[in-house]
Amino acid sequence: MAGSKQGETMTVTEGSPAPVPMARLEALLTDFRPAPVERWNPAHCGRIDIIIDRNGDWHHEGGRIERAALVRLFATVLRREADGTYVLVTPHEKLMITVEDAPFLAIDLVEDDRSRPPALVFATNIGEAVRLDCDHPLRVAGGGPDAPFIPYLTVRAGLEARLTRAVAADLADRAIVSDGRLGVMSAGQFFVIGDAGMATSA
Questions:
Q1: How confident is the model over 102-145, as pLDDT tens digits?
Q2: pTM for this structure?
Q3: 29 confidence band (pLDDT: 50, 70, 90)
Q4: How confident is the model over 74-85, as a mean pLDDT?
Q5: Cβ(28)–Cβ(127) under 8 Å?
Q6: How does the average pLDDT of the chain come out, rounded?
């Protein structure tokens, strides 16, 4: 499935809060301001009943959080600890939450051919845009004969976005074979998504 064209509204899937106009991609790269959670080390204050489900929806005490602005605010203070747990962090407290898979979804993909070299840009379900580059690489789970192809994008330290099925298919459509490996070019680098056999097994 091809990505949205310049100027169109990106399709939002799997429960994401709101559509993101493609014209805002460049602005999003600078407008989204995660908090400096890596600098904060408050006392652990226990667990809060917040769950980010596999569809990227946030729930509190069993009810879905409907306010996109509140989800976005929580996302700015989300951190993954060294033991793999997820916490919401402020300068004064740290609360553990539950994440069923990845905390974010990558809901669309476009190529920014204005940058040199060109780069693939993913939009997340919280309105953040992430360039595929050395600081934001891909990780692929599965991809074998009996395992689904599930790519994950590093959004920031320890936090990933799982590509939706449509975006994963779009990524696969853009793949090329190099030295027996299947991957995509972005920001001047080759990112492996599988072996060359994947290109002919479908």
A1: 999 999 999 987 778 999 999 999 989 999 999 999 999 875 66
A2: 0.77
A3: very low
A4: 94
A5: yes
A6: 82
Q: Kindly report the CA angle at 168 between 146 and 18, in degrees rounded to 5? A: 135
Give the sign of the dihedral formed by CA 42, CA 39, CA 124, CA 142.
negative
Phi and psi at residue 144, to the nearest 5° = -85, -175
- pLDDT at res. 112: 86
Q: What is the DSSP string of 31-61?
A: H-----GGG--PPEEEEEEEEE-TTS-EEET
- Across the chain, which distance is largest between two alpha carbons, in Å? 53
**Residue 5 burial class via C-beta count within 10 angstroms: exposed 0-12, middle 13-18, buried 19 and up:** exposed
The two three-digit tokens of residue 145, written as one number: 């004969």
What sign does the CA torsion over 185, 179, 177, 102 have?
Answer: negative
Three-class HEC string of 92-106: CCEEEEEECCCCEEE
Token look-up 């667990």 returns 47
Task: Dig out the tokens for 135 from the structure.
Answer: 């600081």
End-to-end CA distance of the chain: 15
Burial of 146: CB neighbours in 10 Å, binned 0-12, 13-18, 19+: exposed
